[in-house]
Amino acid sequence: MTLRLTTLCDNLAGSLGYLAEWGLSILVEYGEETILLDTGGTDSVVRNAIQNGINLDQVTRIVLSHGHKDHTGGLRHVLQIMDSKKRQVILHPEAWASKYASRSEPVGSDMHYIGIPYVREELEHLGATFTMSRKPIWINDQIVVTGEVPMKTSFESVEKNLFVKIGEDYIPDPIPDDQALVVKTSKGLVVVLGCAHHGMINTLLYAQKITGEERIYAVVGGTHLFRAGPEQLKQTIAKLEEFNVAHIGVSHCTGMPASMALMQYFKNRFFFNHVGKIMEF
Ligand SMILES: [Fe+2]
Ligand SMILES: [Fe+2]
Fold first, then answer.
1. Mind listing the pLDDT tens digit for each residue in 15-47?
2. Beta partners for residue 21, in sequence order
3. Is the pLDDT of residue 84 over 80?
4. Ligand 1 center to residue 45 CA distance, Å?
5. Is the confidence at residue 261, as pLDDT, over 90?
6. Which tens digits make up the pLDDT trace of 113-150?
7. C-alpha angle 103/64/179, rounded to 5°?
8. DSSP-derived 3-state class of residue 35
9. Measured between alpha carbons, how far is 233 from 256 in angstroms, rounded to an integer?
10. Pairing of strands 25-30, 87-91
11. How many whole angstroms from 96 Cα to the centroid of ligand 2?
């Protein structure tokens, strides 16, 4: 059975006619399931799906990797153009937290809202039915949404400029809602990352643990390496090599310097996973 991934939102547009934006969305087609992992930040997913000849009505369910709006802001647009069938939306309960980022020095001196830009009732009115879990959710025998990813490695950490607003206070956001989609194929795991706020390698280690499958065939999506220092990059490359990953298709929050380092090391095992990219495994 072929696993087909199509990138519908990314920071880079792969060819003429596609829209790029800071965000991520990947369509995952495997057997009976057509799952949309994340929805980008605006309506670019809808436009890019049309450009790609994809009818989003075929989507069986939506998985949200976390509550940041560059992954959830397209949800209203996606639901609006789907037929009126109810759609399951899988997410971690903390994805609904009131999330903020500080982008200036000193950290905390400015706060920007970056959480889900909708109220739940509006999305339910458009057909969304929410399934919330901190634990892995198996969609079928081969496809699992990881739930909360444990922090295990010494070289990965959650950024310090992210907060949750509780009352009038901003407290550091450990982003417990960060999760990935994992497909068990005959060649090994294909791990589709959203933003990997808990670390690309932590996510791969957890994917191995919950599936009982050691082989990681491919990893695609946002790796959150755009602020990684040389040590994290070195250790990440070493672990990917140890896992013997055959295909590494980075997107979104990987950033150019980390992408270049991965490309130089992994050569033809590496690819840019930009809008319009279709991957078959
Ligand atoms: Fe994020
Ligand atoms: Fe992101």
1. 999 999 999 999 999 999 999 999 999 999 999
2. none
3. no
4. 17
5. yes
6. 999 999 999 999 999 999 999 999 999 999 999 999 99
7. 80
8. strand
9. 13
10. unpaired
11. 15
Evaluate if residue 86 carries a pLDDT over 90: no
Neighbours of ion ligand 2 (CB under 5 A): 70, 195, 253
Upper half-sphere CA count for residue 24 (Cβ side, 13 Å): 28
* pTM across the whole model: 0.97
If one counts the domains in the chain, the total is: 1
Amino acid at 98: S
Going through 167-231 in order, the beta strands assigned E by DSSP cover: 169-172, 180-185, 188-193, 216-222
Do 13 and 274 meet the contact criterion of CB atoms below 8 Å apart?
Answer: yes
Ligand 1 centre to CA of 167 (Å) is 22
pLDDT surpassing 90 at residue 83: no
DSSP 115: S
Q: Does pLDDT of 230 surpass 90? A: yes
Cα 10 from Cα 32, distance rounded (Å): 25
pLDDT, tens only, 186-212: 999 999 999 999 999 999 999 999 999
Query: What is the spatial distance between Cα 151 and Cα 139, in angstroms, rounded to a whole number?
Result: 24
pLDDT recorded at residue 246: 98
Domain that holds residue 41: 4-280
| CA–centroid distance, residue 164 to ligand 2 (Å) | 16
- In this structure, are residues 192 and 221 in contact, taking their beta carbons and an 8 Å threshold? yes
Tokens 């932590």 -> residue: 202
CATH number of the structural domain spanning residue 158: 3.60.15.10
Pair 65, 38: CB distance under 8 Å: yes
Ligand closest to the CA atom of residue 162: 1
What is the C-alpha separation between 253 and 175, in angstroms, rounded? 15
Q: What is the DSSP letter of 149?
A: P
The token pair that represents 90 in the structure block: 């899988």
